[in-house]
């Protein structure tokens, strides 16, 4: 399988869905390898190779145990927003909600004890935050309804979400909260940096305000 991309930069992530038809042996690992051949802005030809090995299992509890919630919550909005031009936003939000319910219902049906109480909420450890992120997805600018969000602003967020990696998607949906009263002067970095004459605070992680919302809490 191969594809062509006109332009790509370090802030873009590509989602690939892989379907296999043959039966995989469970005693062996499945290996995935992706190679990106590109030309830099300076004209140098380079190749970048990513290799991933995953365990093969036919048991659903093993699948849930090894699930990556950041990868799941990054893939769901990308798949939904592919149809943003042909489907209503309400339908896309309903689809995300149904996917979340279907995942958690499958875990309860196939991975829990038969004598579990009907009213007891049981979530897989690897996906226990899936309902939280699904709720924030349906309220993000790219998918929320209402006339208060303009078409230009919405499309800006749609294009950003389609290009987000897992490390970018999580803080976009669940913004970081910075308590200013607990931060020492000179320990918070905000990108892009303000003019040199502006007082600055620095956090252990960079905060790009153009892509990630950061709440600043001040204790009075």
Q: Provide the low-confidence segments as ranges.
A: 203-213
Radius of gyration: 21 Å
Q: Tell me the major beta sheet.
A: 2 strands, antiparallel
Q: Identify the strand order in the major beta sheet.
A: 1-2
Ends distance:
58 Å
Beta strands, count: 6
Mean pLDDT: 81
As a percent range, the share of helical residues equals 25-40%
Shape: globular
How many distinct helices?
6
Structural class: alpha/beta
Strand content: 15-25%
| Series of H and E elements | EEHHHHHHEEEE
Describe this structure as you would to a colleague:
It is a single chain. By secondary structure, the chain is α/β, with parallel strands linked by helices. The protein has a domain at 175-220. It is 33% helix and 15% strand. The chain has six helices and six strands, in the order E-E-H-H-H-H-H-H-E-E-E-E. The chain has helices at 60-65, 69-81, 89-111, 130-139, 151-163, 166-173; strands at residues 29-39, 45-55, 176-179, 190-191, 207-208, 214-217. A two-stranded antiparallel sheet has the order 1-2. Strand 1 and strand 2 form a beta hairpin. Helix 3 (89-111) packs antiparallel against helix 4. The protein is globular, with a radius of gyration of 21 Å. 11% of the residues are buried. Mean pLDDT is 81; it is low at 203-213.
Write a concise synopsis of the structure shown:
The protein has helices at 60-65, 69-81, 89-111, 130-139, 151-163, 166-173; strands spanning 29-39, 45-55, 176-179, 190-191, 207-208, 214-217. It contains six helices and six strands.
């Amino acid at each position: 399988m191969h594809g062509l991309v006109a332009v790509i930069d370090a802030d873009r992530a590509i989602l690939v869905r892989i379907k296999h038809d043959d039966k995989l042996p469970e005693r062996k690992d499945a290996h995935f390898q992706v190679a990106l051949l590109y030309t830099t802005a300076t004209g140098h030809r380079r190749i970048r190779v990513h290799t991933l090995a995953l365990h093969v299992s036919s048991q659903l509890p093993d699948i849930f145990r090894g699930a990556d919630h950041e990868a799941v919550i990054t893939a769901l909005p990308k798949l939904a927003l592919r149809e943003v031009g042909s489907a209503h936003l309400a339908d896309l939000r309903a689809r995300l909600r149904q996917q979340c319910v279907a995942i958690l219902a499958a875990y309860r049906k196939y991975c829990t004890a038969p004598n579990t109480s009907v009213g007891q909420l049981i979530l897989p450890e690897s996906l226990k935050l899936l309902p939280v992120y699904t709720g924030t997805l349906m309220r993000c600018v790219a998918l929320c309804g209402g006339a208060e969000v303009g078409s230009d602003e919405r499309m800006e967020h749609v294009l950003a979400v389609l290009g987000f990696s897992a490390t970018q998607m999580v803080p976009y949906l669940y913004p970081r909260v910075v308590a200013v009263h607990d931060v020492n002067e000179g320990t918070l970095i905000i990108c892009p940096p303000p003019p040199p004459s502006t007082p600055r605070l620095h956090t252990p992680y960079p905060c790009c305000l153009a892509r990630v919302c950061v709440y600043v809490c001040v204790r009075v």
